[in-house]
Design brief:
It comes from Clytia hemisphaerica. The protein is mostly beta strands. The protein is built from two helices and eleven strands. It has a single domain, classed as Protein Transport Mog1p, Chain A (3-Layer(aba) Sandwich), CATH 3.40.1000. Strands 4-5-6-10-9-8-7 form a seven-stranded antiparallel beta sheet, with helices on both faces. It is globular and about 45 Å long. It starts with a strand and ends in a 7-residue tail after the last strand.
Length: about 190
């Protein structure tokens, strides 16, 4: 199945999930080891990436605080907690979602200064972080979709010589990211338990 946006429906996690996905995405599991709770894809021309992450449900946080919790957790892993900002948090209306099982879905747009592969402070890149969080308490799961969208690449970064121009016309957009997120379907809920 394909559509005008140069993509098709792709199975994730062995077919337990599916969603629309652009054809210019490389499956990182074909290049490097990816944890079992993740699916990671990289844009063929830019330094953008999209990750699906199945996480333990965080019942101590609710509403917008839940997605901010996960965002700050990622910032900490990226050594960017001091340089992380949240620009937008909004709830995604359930009628826009293919996943009907979630109690809530949230979108976050933030920005972090991230050093790829922990290359050091002088190699930090300015990266927009787009996230969608699906709350699935009945499966004790928080399902995250994360897009890393580099805005400015440090000359000291390993990405600087890759001809990855942040203004490349084939870049994945926020609109495409939301299309991916809203098209996500649960095919087999045994994935969560």
């Amino acid at each position: 199945m394909s559509n005008k946006d140069n993509g098709n429906v792709r199975d994730l996690f062995g077919g337990a999930l599916s969603c629309f996905f652009p054809t210019n995405a490389l499956d990182m599991s074909e290049i490097r080891e990816v944890p079992n709770n993740q699916e990671v894809f990289h844009h063929q021309k830019t330094d953008q990436s999209i990750m699906f992450d199945i996480l333990e449900y965080q019942d101590q946080v609710h509403g917008s605080e839940a997605i901010k919790y996960h965002y700050m957790d990622i910032a900490e892993v990226n050594d960017a907690s001091e340089e992380a900002e949240v620009n937008t948090v909004e709830e995604i209306p359930k009628e826009n979602l293919s996943i009907k099982e979630c109690s809530q879905a949230l979108f976050l747009l933030g920005r972090q200064m991230i050093s790829k592969y922990k290359e050091g402070a002088d190699a930090k890149n300015l990266v927009n972080i787009l996230m969608v969080l699906y709350r699935l308490p009945q499966y004790e799961t928080d399902l995250l979709i994360i897009m890393n969208d580099p805005v400015a690449i440090s000359t000291k970064s390993s990405s600087s010589g890759n001809n990855t121009t942040p203004n490349d016309a084939s870049k994945w957009s926020e609109k495409l990211f939301k299309q991916i997120a809203c098209s996500l379907k649960i095919v087999d809920s045994s994935l969560f338990g």
